[in-house]
């Protein structure tokens, strides 16, 4: 399935972080080691336990194997069980990722296996997104915690809590966005 997001206009970093709705993105092959379920569960917990800005999660990617398809079916069922149908959208394959990155504010990469490089994280950063990713593997070479992005140990047993500690303040209505804008700008450079 090919899906292209229409871009009405490109937002500057200041405009992005002034919006009431926070758009979160994650992209890659829909497969268990990419841990999309962890992102969904973390957002559900934030939605149900803390005061938060409205958010949307846009997941780009497709399942390529039968095993991946079972995982994708599990993700869709999880979204229904957690009552996140209005917040989570599966976009399928996207031809023009630039349009996708232009529509998101925060990019999360939660792979449970350290990536050799993490191209989607670098691309998201280059497009001005606030990047959240693993503190191991190739991503840690360019995503420096609190400087060019926010990192957590996605391979650790307690990774959901670590991700929640990062995301909850970003989604909190009263949080000053100055620090996040600076981090995103550093990451873009």
Task: Explain how this protein is built.
This protein has 189 residues and is α/β, with parallel strands linked by helices. Helix content is 40%, strand content 15%. The chain has 7 helices and 6 strands. The chain has helices at residues 13-18, 36-49, 66-81, 97-103, 119-126, 159-171, 178-188, and strands at 22-27, 55-60, 88-92, 106-108, 130-134, 150-152. The chain has a 6-stranded parallel beta sheet with strand order 3-2-1-4-5-6, sandwiched between helices. The chain starts with 12 loop residues before the first helix and ends with a helix. The model is unreliable at 1-18 (pLDDT under 50).
* Count, helices: 7
DSSP strand (E) fraction? 5-15%
**Count of β-strands:** 6
Q: Order of SSEs, N→C?
A: HEHEHEHEHEEHH
Query: Rounded to an integer, what's the Rg over CA atoms?
Result: 15 Å
**Most strands sheet:** 6 strands, parallel
Distance between the termini: 33 Å
Q: Indicate the low-confidence ranges by residue numbers.
A: 1-18
Structural class by helix and strand composition? alpha/beta
On the 0-100 scale, what is the average pLDDT? Answer: 88
Helix content: 25-40%
Spatial arrangement of strands, main beta sheet: 3-2-1-4-5-6
Shape annotation: globular
